[in-house]
Amino acid sequence: MAEPDLKIRQPPTRPGLAPVLVLGLVGLLVMGLPLVVIRPARTPAVPAVTVVKGKMASKVDFFRDSKVREILRRKQIEVLVDNTGSREIATHDVDKYDFVFPSGQPAADLIMSTRLKSNKEAHAYLPFVSPIVLATYRPYARALQDAGVATAMNPNGSNPLYYKINLGRFVQLSEVGVRWNDIGIRNYGIENSNLVLAHTADVCLSNSGGTYQGLIAYAKNNGRAASAESEVAALAQSLKPLYRAQGAPTADRVPYYLSPEGMRIAPIVVIYEHQYLAHQLRRPQGKPDEDRVLLYPADHFETQPSFIALNESGRKVGDLLRTDPELRARAVELGFRVLDADQDTASPLLAGLLAERGIEVPPSDNNHTRAYLPPLDLFEKLIITIGGC
Prior knowledge:
- Helix content is 39%, strand content 15%.
- By secondary structure, the chain is of the alpha/beta class.
- The chain has two domains: 50-128 and 305-367, Periplasmic binding protein-like II (D-Maltodextrin-Binding Protein, domain 2, 3-Layer(aba) Sandwich); 130-303 and 369-387, 3-Layer(aba) Sandwich (D-Maltodextrin-Binding Protein, domain 2).
- It is globular.
């Protein structure tokens, strides 16, 4: 059988198209017009984003704030943070992070003296401060005022937001078993047979919980920081029952305080001033929350949250926190007392913003006497004994 005759057909062409194209190009050249070759546009290079990892405590709300993240993104920086207690930062490995941000000086000193002794790149920044306060509700502040334990700091105001509390007298009420009903909370329409005390975060994990124990130890020690092991041991044993009486501690008391059930769960909680002021600044202008108030310890202690850069990436963020106007302005909007250029005193930015928003300005440091914590090794002994860490 003969092989089949296979023929390959050429694809059909549109008649006259190629000659037309050739004639068109020749015509352009004859007329002297330039031949323009159109090339695809290049995509502009996107600046590289530096990812900076941090481990931090209560100040985590700063770096998780959407405006702060936006400001940093415009500077090609993205900060990723893990949230934990300040003392937990000090006692766990930090090598995989670019910075750590404990909420107070004791934890920062512990980190610098133990975890980072060999890190020559480590550098501490103090971008802002926020005092330890006792957050409560107006009826409880008035009951404490009636009992001679608290005093309104603006007695001329009809609904003052800030009170001064004598921690020595306050703790004495707890030690002798005084209940809220015993000091007249019923006069304000509340029935509460619980012990008069403040609720804190876990002293083994948090700076606020530990610092509060140091403050009441200072008050119980007649306004003097314990300087001997025997003093610390005795104070710790006397404070341990009060710490246990508050029940199981939680990591963060602020959500409870701001919830509608807060007054029932824990009428007084230990927090930072900025957490309260941020709540007030989120409200409509001229309409502060007058049901929630602060109690400032008469013996004042200003926590110093320390941003500790562990390498060059961390230092870049630390420098921005101290100098960038946008980040400093946003810190004020989040309730922090930013420091002046010399890192010595708080700038007037926070007071100005609060006044502008119709919120009573809290007292300055000059309105208080200062409290002091024991030396670091003794302070650690106090905390470990009270909390059973």
